[in-house]
């Protein structure tokens, strides 16, 4: 099945099973805005809890804050967002649709990479265990041809983005013969810049002096609170400040479901350190953050680092952690060494001294900063994409199952009375009441047991407990495992012991190597 078709099925599954709904759905929705349903919000909250605890529980020198969405407008002047927070946009005159020029070119690069991957996969299947992938990549004419095209395009694109050179970006689009996916034509306008910040007015009047912005990132709330946290928490370098919160960007070309939206949620941590030590911490956080992802068990091969060739104006090093989505490897997290840019800029624009007094060196200086920034929605999507599975069973039937990492699953355990009578619902409720204080446990009594198993598979519930007539006699139940569908008879008093450790966030935290 084509990956595009798989992605459409995932989007449909999200709506059908209460994970994600189009916003204002009864009014035909609002483009690039989504609501998380009853199962989606649980999965999303579990992701946030996993991230938060990995920061504040595993690191004694990291604390959290919750900064306001509205900030003084000069914050965004100091950060560079007012003058430089732009996307290069291009319109197709026939379809009247607008696109990001950089995304069109990146998709073209991705097509060359997909062609290479298909050749490699085909050869691997043909030659089996004797296949030498490195040699194949070095000698196969079709691979070499596509690799050359990919590398040449990548070099042109990297150079064009340095300015960015808007004319060069358009020329690349024309030279590559990139067509509009709707009209199929190459009738493109010139490329132009567009600022992504939403603005609004604060106060009783609508004068320009009262213009403020919805924050386009959460990081600046940390920087402007640096001294507040450092002094009240008596923090010593190195230390970090983290937060989870909403951010807003007027994405003209929002796409790929919740991957790119106008209202989204970020999990960011700014780690402040002595100047000169930032690269050591940059490497530390690369290792730690990759370990956080890999602990979920979604396949180490599905992650890769992508180092930035064009650095932002504030950075001296930057990399992305990319995950293999149905539409290619895409960024889910960024790790950046931001130097002392942000604190220095806020010191300059505010007129306040923002420095750290180092008692060991007996001097004051502006700390350097290493940032980790992960999109909650993108993380949600990567988990859903990896977990969605269609299986053909031995009996000829099929099932759709979400093989979610067990600690992230919305419902950890479903208790199912075999029939909705004869005292079984009451016994099932008793079991739910004994487990619900430890992990999210639901009871479901409607429909046949087979249909209920399938519904729980579809929302990713790791464990199902079936209560039957024997339960009333010997206090044992049938415990079913989601992924293997294995069933075993266990005493009711053993349920918590069997399930709890596997579904707790702690079980993930223990896998992360932070040495």
Automatic annotation (TrEMBL):
It comes from Prevotella multiformis DSM 16608. It catalyses: tRNA(Gly) + glycine + ATP = glycyl-tRNA(Gly) + AMP + diphosphate. Keywords: Aminoacyl-tRNA synthetase, ATP-binding, Cytoplasm, Ligase, Nucleotide-binding, Protein biosynthesis. Substrate binds at residues 100, 217, 264-268, 371-375. It is found in: Cytoplasm. InterPro entries: aa-tRNA-synt_IIb (IPR002314), aa-tRNA-synth_II (IPR006195), aa-tRNA-synth_II/BPL/LPL (IPR045864), Anticodon-bd (IPR004154), Anticodon-bd_dom_sf (IPR036621), Gly-tRNA_synthase/POLG2 (IPR027031), Gly_tRNA_ligase_bac (IPR022961), GlyRS-like_core (IPR033731). Belongs to the class-II aminoacyl-tRNA synthetase family. GO terms for cellular component: cytoplasm; extracellular exosome; microvesicle. The gene is glyS. This is Glycine--tRNA ligase. One of its GO terms (molecular function) is ATP binding. Its main location: cytoplasm.
């Amino acid at each position: 099945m084509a990956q595009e078709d798989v992605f459409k099925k995932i989007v449909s599954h999200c709506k059908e099973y209460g994970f994600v709904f189009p916003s204002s759905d009864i009014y035909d929705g609002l483009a690039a805005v989504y609501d998380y349903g009853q199962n989606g919000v649980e999965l999303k909250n579990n992701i946030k809890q996993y991230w938060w605890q990995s920061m504040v529980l595993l690191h004694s020198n990291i604390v959290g804050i919750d900064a306001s969405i509205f900030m003084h407008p000069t914050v965004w002047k100091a950060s560079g967002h007012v003058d430089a927070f732009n996307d290069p946009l291009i319109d197709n005159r026939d379809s009247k649709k607008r696109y990001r020029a950089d995304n069109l070119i990146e998709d073209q690069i991705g097509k060359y990479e997909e062609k290479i991957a298909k050749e490699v996969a085909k050869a691997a299947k043909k030659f089996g265990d004797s296949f030498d992938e490195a040699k194949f990549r070095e000698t196969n004419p079709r691979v070499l041809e596509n690799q050359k095209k990919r590398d040449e395009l990548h070099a042109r694109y990297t150079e064009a983005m340095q300015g960015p050179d808007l004319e060069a970006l358009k020329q690349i689009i024309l030279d590559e013969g990139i067509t509009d996916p709707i009209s199929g034509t190459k009738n493109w306008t010139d490329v132009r810049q567009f600022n992504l910040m939403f603005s609004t007015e604060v106060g009783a009047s609508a004068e320009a002096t009262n213009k403020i912005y919805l924050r386009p990132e959460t990081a600046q709330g940390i920087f402007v609170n640096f001294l507040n946290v450092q002094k009240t928490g008596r923090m010593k370098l190195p230390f970090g400040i983290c937060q989870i919160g909403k951010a807003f960007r007027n994405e003209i070309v929002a796409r790929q479901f919740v991957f790119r939206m106008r209202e989204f949620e970020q999990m960011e941590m700014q780690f402040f350190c002595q100047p000169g030590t930032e690269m050591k911490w940059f490497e530390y956080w690369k290792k730690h953050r990759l370990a956080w992802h890999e602990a979920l068990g979604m396949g180490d091969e599905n992650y890769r680092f992508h180092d930035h060739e064009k650095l932002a104006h504030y950075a001296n090093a930057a990399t992305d952690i990319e995950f293999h989505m149905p539409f290619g490897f895409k960024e889910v997290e960024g790790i950046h060494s931001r130097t002392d840019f942000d604190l220095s800029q806020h010191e300059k624009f505010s007129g306040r001294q923002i420095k750290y007094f180092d008692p060991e060196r007996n001097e004051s200086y502006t700390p350097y900063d290493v940032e980790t920034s992960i999109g909650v929605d993108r993380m949600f999507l990567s988990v859903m994409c990896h977990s969605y599975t269609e299986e053909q069973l031995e009996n000829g039937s099929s099932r759709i199952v979400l093989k979610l990492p067990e600690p992230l699953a919305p419902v950890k355990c479903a208790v199912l009375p075999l029939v909705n009578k004869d005292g079984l619902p009451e016994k099932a409720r008793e079991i739910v009441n004994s487990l619900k204080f430890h992990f999210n446990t639901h009871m479901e009594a409607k429909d046949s047991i087979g249909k209920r198993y399938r519904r729980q598979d579809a929302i990713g519930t790791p464990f199902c407990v079936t209560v039957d007539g024997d339960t009333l006699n010997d206090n044992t139940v049938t415990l079913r495992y989601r992924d293997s569908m294995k069933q075993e008879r266990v005493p009711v008093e053993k349920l918590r012991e069997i399930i709890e450790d596997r579904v707790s966030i702690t079980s993930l935290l223990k896998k992360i190597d932070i040495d």
